[in-house]
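Protein: RraA family protein
Species: Candidatus Allofournierella pullicola
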Amino acid sequence: VYAYEESNWPVHEQIQDIEEDCIVFVEAFGCADRAIFGELVSKYVLLYRQSRAIVVKGKMRDAAALYREKWPIWCEGFTPVGCFNREPAKHFDEAIRKEHFERYDGAIAVCDDCGVVIIPKERINEDFLAELHQIENQEDIWFDRLDHYKENTFQIVCEKKYLQDDVYMSRSAIENRK
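Structure follows.
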C-alpha cells in the first residue's frame, strides 16, 4: 500500500481489498513529514479487514489512541499534520511501485518496541541465521561480563577484554555448542 503527493487517497483505495491475515506494509512517497493516516484507517485495517499488523514507512497520526488500543502498528514517528484527502493529479509511477513490491515481497519484517528492520528475501538464508546467532551469543557474553566480571562497557565493547581471557572463551565456546 502506498501514499504519494501528500495524499492518502490512494491508501483509502488500496485498503478496500486487503485480504485477512495480512501484514499491511504502507510506504509514503513525496509526503514530506505528513502523517499517512491514524486511528480510523488503523481500526478499519486491523478490526474490519482482519489484518495482523500494520507497518508504515512514514509517519502516523493519533498516537494516543493507537497506544491506548495496543494495536500491532509500527511507524517512523507521529505528527498531527496529516496528508490531504484528495485524488493525486497523476498516477503513481508504475516502475517505482513494481521495484518496491519486488523489494519487500517475501522479505521479513522484524518489529519490536525499537522499530522495524526489513530483512530482504535474498538475505534470508543459513548464513544470515548464523550471523543472528553470533549477535545473540556476543550480547550474552557482554551482559555476562558486565554482571559477573564487573567490567565497564569500554572494556567490554571497545577493548573486548573477554577475548584475552582464554578460560572464559573456551568455556563460552563449549556452552555455545550445546
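Remarks: The first strand starts at residue 2 and ends at 4.
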